[in-house]
Amino acid sequence: MSGESVDRKSGSVDRKSGSVDRKSESVDRKSGSVDRKSGSVDRESGSVDRESEAVDRESGSVDRESGSVDRESESVDRESESVDRESESVDRKIKTVDRKTNPFDK
């Protein structure tokens, strides 16, 4: 299942919009994500977003909404980084133990 690899990048957003996130991820790199991301909103609110899309191109309000999605995906990355920090802290504790055993060996 390729959806599992997408979950690591987009986080909980992938569970809500599904395959739309796969498109929005690649579009984010090109910064043309405004149209395709707002398309996923069309499924929820309907034709209202079609009208707002034209306005969003001028006001850029879609960028603010897509920014909130990016914040969620960033929070997922921070969690994975925190796990790495915990494993590093364990290594540091082991090193401190080695320092204590060295003077006894002498």
Explain the overall architecture:
By secondary structure, the chain is an all-alpha fold. It has one domain (9-105). It is 90% helix and 0% strand. The protein is built from six helices and no strands. The chain has helices at 3-10, 13-17, 19-30, 33-45, 48-59, 61-105. Helix 3 runs antiparallel to helix 4 (33-45) and helix 4 (33-45) runs antiparallel to helix 5 (48-59). The longest helix has 45 residues, at 61-105. The chain is elongated, with a radius of gyration of 22 Å.
Please state the overall shape, judged from the principal axes of the Cα atoms.
elongated
SS field, number of helical segments: 6
Radius of gyration: 22 Å
Q: Kindly name the structural category.
A: mainly alpha
Overall pLDDT score: 48
Largest sheet: none
First-last Cα distance: 57 Å
Number of domains: 1
Q: Secondary-structure element sequence?
A: HHHHHH
Helix content: over 70%
Q: Strand share of the residues?
A: under 5%
- DSSP strand count: 0
Which ranges are low-confidence, i.e. pLDDT below 50, for 5 or more consecutive residues? 1-78
State the main characteristics.
106 residues, mainly alpha
Quick take:
Residues 1-106 are annotated as: Disordered. With 106 residues, this protein is mainly alpha-helical.
Q: How are the SSEs placed, and which strands pair?
A:
Layout: H1 3-10, H2 13-17, H3 19-30, H4 33-45, H5 48-59, H6 61-105
